[in-house]
Structure formats: C-alpha cells, structure tokens
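Progress note, sequence design subtask.
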C-alpha cells in the first residue's frame, strides 16, 4: 500500500495535514495536588488544585474551552482536514490499582497520550497516576485505525507505585551539581508522547518529569533502525513536553524558545537550518496558566509548510511567522490554556501527506 492510501501516516510536524484528532474537555477533572504535579506546575497555581482537586473543572471553564475546541474543529474542516474526537470518559471516577487510587484528568490533550510515526500509532504509558486510563478515551478511534491497517504499539504501563517517583525531588532542587533532576525515576518505562518531536527519520526527545531514558529506549527499539532518536536537553528546569521549546516549522526552519534554548544546545543536525527565536508570550505568567509555562505561545499547529493555526492573541508571534514567509491563521484558544496546552497539545496528527525522508543532509 503506498503512503497516500494509508489511513494512518505521519512523519513530521509540517506535511499537509489530512486527518487529526481534536481533544474534548467534557468531564475534565482537576488532579489532586501532589509532588508529581508540583514538578511542572507553576507554584502560583497551587491554590487551584487545593480548591478543586478531585472535582470537575469549573463548568464555566469547560464551556468556554469546549466552544474553542468546537471552533477549531470547524476551522480544520474548512481547511479540508478530517477531524475525529475522543470519548469523554467519566474522569471523576477513581482508578484503583493494588498500590494507589486516583481520579482521572481529561481527554483534552491527544498529543500527550499517543503519537503517529510512519504508519504506527504508539500509545504512551504516561507518568501521572491521574492519566493511567486516559488512553481508553481514544481506544474506539485507535481500534478503527487498526482495522484500517495501522500498526499499533502500546508501551508497557508502569505500576506508578510510590517508589517509582523520586522522593528527594523538589522543584527548587531541579538541578544538583549541574545535573538535571526529575520527579520520576528509571524504575519503569515512562514517557508522554509530547516529549517527542518528529522530523522524518530523525526524532528528537527530551528527558523530562514525565519521560525517562527507559521510555526513550523503548521507543527507539520499537520504531526500528530506519529512525534515529536523539536525546536533547535545554534550560527548561521543569521540563514536561518539548512542544514549547523547539518547533520545526518546515524543512530548514526551526523555531526555538529563546528563554530555554541556547544556540550551543541546538542539536548539530540543525546546523544548516535557519533558527528563528520566538517572540515573548503575550499572556502574563500568572493568568490562569495552571498546568503550563507561559510559552504556550509556541504550541501551535501547522496545517502544511506555510499555514499555521495560532492563538489569536499571539500577535507578535504571528508577525514574526509572516515575516518568515508563513501564513498564520488566528483562532481563539485562550480559554483552553488553563487546561495546560494550546492548539498543538489539543491535537494529534493521524495523517499527513508526504514521504518518510531525512531532512539532515
Ligand atoms: N503541555 C505543554 C506545556 C509545556 C509548557 O509548560 O511549556
């Protein structure tokens, strides 16, 4: 079967998008405050989890974010992209294992729980107890893609027992003697798919508070020898998800977060690429960004090598992209930010037209 006929096929972040999953916020539930959450959550947001932990997100937040997701679907369909939605599980229900029990989170961020590499769907094992069952929101879709010929790999889910987490870790001691510390250990396989960025045969990944070396090694061995997996590290002291740090825009053009990425840290593969520094976020740091940094600015979705869906308030970024020959399409998405992501997080590519190739000499 040639790639154009494959139902599931995507090799990078910029080929023409033909099918995508867009998340839902229905039944989204606020996790209970924990050291795991504290490792990447801004401390100014702690009150939100203390007040709402274990309960549904406030209805007004859900309604506003839901309307923005529905609008995103309309915009994508208008661009001739097929859109699928996950099931809204009842995330207020607790998952009980022999070692712990926890309420769930949401099905808002497909980018975190699964990724498509070539014609394979890879399910991430995750690292938060509250996200243990999240993938089941996508299983009806994944089973259909499997019936249509996709390959399907599910990474081994860890126990997420207490001793998987690093009890010594505190956000204030995120680096000791020049060595980055993480809240998760290497005891079992862990990764979120959003710590990987795909550039054809080269895939870049960061170790983070949800992705460990064992998880990266699992991906490396399972995707096969035609792919090169490169581990990168930048200056984000509390890393979780790479899609606000480096964003490949098109062959030869890489957007970087100037606060976290030093030129000397950019992988040598990008030596001949144009490096573009993102503009500062327009949103104040403490404006309801409960789960994320303020760099959601960079968390946009490429429809193809030119057109990019960008949150409508991010005007300086849109100006920058236009200056570099891109065509930003503004959409309202600000009310989704408090759930921890922007347009990239809220989506997962299922099909992009194009071939698997190397973009690095
Ligand atoms: N899930 C994307 C959030 C990354 C960040 O906090 O910058």
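Output:
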């Amino acid at each position: 079967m040639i790639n154009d006929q494959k139902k599931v096929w995507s090799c990078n972040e910029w080929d023409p998008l033909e099918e995508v999953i867009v998340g839902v916020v229905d039944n989204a539930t606020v996790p209970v405050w924990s050291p795991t959450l504290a490792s990447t959550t801004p401390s100014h947001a702690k009150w939100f989890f203390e007040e709402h932990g274990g309960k549904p997100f406030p209805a007004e937040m859900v309604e506003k974010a839901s309307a923005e997701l529905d609008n995103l679907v309309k915009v994508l369909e208008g661009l001739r992209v097929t859109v699928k939605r996950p099931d809204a599980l009842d995330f207020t229900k607790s998952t009980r294992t022999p070692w712990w029990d926890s309420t769930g989170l949401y099905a808002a961020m497909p980018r975190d729980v699964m990724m498509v590499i070539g014609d394979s769907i890879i399910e991430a094992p995750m690292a938060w107890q509250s996200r243990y069952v999240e993938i089941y929101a996508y299983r009806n879709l994944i089973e259909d893609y499997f019936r249509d010929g996709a390959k399907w790999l599910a990474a081994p889910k860890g126990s997420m027992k207490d001793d998987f987490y690093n009890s010594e870790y505190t956000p204030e001691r995120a680096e000791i003697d020049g060595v980055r510390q993480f809240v998760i250990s290497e005891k079992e396989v862990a990764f979120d798919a959003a710590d990987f960025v795909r550039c054809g045969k080269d895939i870049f990944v960061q170790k983070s508070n949800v992705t460990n070396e064992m998880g990266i090694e699992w991906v490396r061995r399972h995707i096969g020898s035609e792919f090169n997996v490169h581990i990168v590290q930048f200056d984000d002291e509390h890393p979780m998800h790479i899609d606000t740090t480096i964003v490949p825009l098109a062959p030869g053009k890489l957007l970087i977060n100037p606060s976290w990425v030093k030129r000397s840290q950019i992988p040598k593969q990008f030596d001949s690429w144009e490096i573009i520094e993102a503009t500062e976020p327009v949103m104040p740091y403490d404006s309801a960004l409960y789960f994320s940094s303020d760099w959601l600015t960079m968390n946009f979705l490429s429809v193809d090598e030119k057109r990019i869906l960008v949150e409508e308030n991010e005007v300086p970024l849109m100006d920058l992209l236009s200056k570099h020959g891109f065509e930003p399409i503004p959409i309202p998405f600000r009310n989704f930010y408090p759930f921890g992501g922007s347009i990239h997080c809220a989506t997962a590519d299922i099909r992009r037209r194009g071939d698997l190739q190397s973009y690095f000499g």
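The CA atoms of residues 23 and 108 lie 4 Å apart. Work on this subtask will continue into the next period as scheduled.
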